[in-house]
Amino acid sequence: MYPADLQKIAHTVEISELRDTLMKQVPAATANLPATLKLLSDPVRLRLCALLSQAELAVQELVAVTGLQQSRISNHLSLLKRAGLVRDRREGTWSFHSLVGPGASSPLTEALFAAAIAPWRAGAEGAVDTKALQAVLDQRRARSREAHDRLAARWSASGEGFALGTLRAELLAAAWPCRGPIADLGCGTGFLASWLASRGAVVVGVDHSERMLERARALCGDAVQLRLGELDALPVRDGEVAAVFANLVWHHLPDLDAAAREVLRVLQPGGTVVIGDLVPHRADWMREAMGDLRLGLEPEAVLGALLRAGAVDLRAERVADRYCATDAAGQGVEFPMFLVAGRKPTAMQAEGPPAASRVL
Ligand SMILES: C[S@@+](CC[C@H](N)C(=O)[O-])C[C@H]1O[C@@H](n2cnc3c(N)ncnc32)[C@H](O)[C@@H]1O
Question: pLDDT tens across 103-146, in order?
Fold first, then answer.
């Protein structure tokens, strides 16, 4: 049945190479294949899928990359979402879209991705889009850095507003025992790094905001090595640290997987990672006030990213302390927090237990 069906569907494919490749490379077609092929036969939809396979994007960002009208993009996204090829994640009044990559629940098979989306990305038009996408992502980073530069003068005060004052001890307890150098990622003005150093730890603080680091330098002096850098490209050597802490920074990250891979890279085997952040909330004003990208995070999103990066012994816990901020009307708001902890496997764990101890 499929060869005939494929021919019929492929008839509507406007890109002849795509049709030829599909005919050759999709022998094991699924029940959804005709509908999926039809969707991907439209160059705009193929283009959107190729972009959304590279980054989670808001409609405005897709407009900036492609130069297409917002209404046209929204219509195509609706079709792709209805077919299960694209998912959206709502964040207050914003919506972020990403491709549902090949997997059990996706109508997109590995073969179809390789036959349709990968060649589009690798082609001349795809390369132009990827370059424009890079520029949009660079602007996003620059906006985030600038927001944190502006916030630096206030952060020393506002970043230390916690209901109980137990947060730092709770994070440290989750990494205990912790022997060796510690990295504090997104260290800001040094709230956690200075405290860890005062307890005798060798601490490396990383942040992408120069103004935050200036404040941290004033607070920590030489007690903490401060480095300018991004969480998805850490200025830290492979296996340099025994523990990684990252407090209130993961909700700023567009790509949790990239940051998780970096965390695993810089940890020694057996090293610990502890990430503290806000649980999902609806305070949209935090975007403007704090430069936030996400309105809190599901602990599962952090767990998933660390798991995919190879972390083991993962767990999520509610933190007793709560972050306190003040809205534009001067009202104090308390935000519940979670922590996620895990470890980089030792070499033995990575390879699995010795054969003799395996239960067969
Ligand atoms: C909300 S502050 C938290 C600071 C500190 N961890 C604390 O608990 O006080 C977030 C910090 O993460 C930094 N940051 C945000 N996104 C980052 C990124 N992609 N790479 C490096 N630092 C980042 C910001 O510059 C800011 O200093």
Answer: 767 888 888 899 999 999 999 999 999 999 999 999 999 999 99
For the chain, give the mean pLDDT.
86
Kind and range of the H or E run holding 20: helix 16-25
| Amino acid 29: pLDDT | 39
pLDDT tens-digit profile of 336-358?
999 999 999 997 666 554 433 33
Beta bridge partners of 339: 276, 317
| Residue 54 near ligand 1, beta carbon < 6 Å | no
CB of 188 closer than 6 A to ligand 1? yes
Instruction: Tell me the CATH number at 72.
Output: 1.10.10.10
Question: Which of 148, 154, 255, 294 is the best mutation target for the ligand 1 pocket, counting ligand atoms within 8 Å of the beta carbon and taking the most?
Answer: 148
Flag whether the pTM goes above 0.85: no
Identify the pLDDT of residue 30: 54
* One domain, residues 113 and 223: no
Range of the domain at 50: 3-122
Q: How many helices (H) and strands (E) does the chain have?
A: 16, 9
Does any domain span residue 133? no
**In terms of pLDDT, which residue wins out, 107 or 270?**
270
Shortest-distance atom of ligand 1 to CA 160:
9
Q: Is residue 134 part of a domain?
A: no
Q: What is the CATH number of the domain that holds 300?
A: 3.40.50.150
Centre of ligand 1 to C-alpha 100, Å, is 29
Residue 276 Cα: closest atom of ligand 1 = 8
Report yes or no on 60 lying in a domain: yes
Is residue 140 in a domain?
Answer: no
11 Cβ neighbours under 8 A, 6+ residues apart: none
349 and 252 within one domain: yes
**Residues in CB range of 61: below 8 A, 6 or more apart:** 136, 140
How does pLDDT run across 28-81, given as a tens digit for each residue? Answer: 335 578 888 889 999 999 999 999 999 999 999 999 999 999 999 999 999 999
Secondary structure letter of residue 230 according to DSSP: B
Report the residue among 160, 167, 194, 208 best suited for mutation to probe ligand 1: largest number of ligand atoms under 8 A from its CB.
208
With a 6 Å cutoff on the Cβ, whether 207 touches ligand 1 is: yes
Distance CA 100, CA 91 (A): 18
Backbone angles phi, psi at 100, to 5 degrees: -85, 100
- 248 Cβ closer than 6 Å to some ligand 1 atom: yes
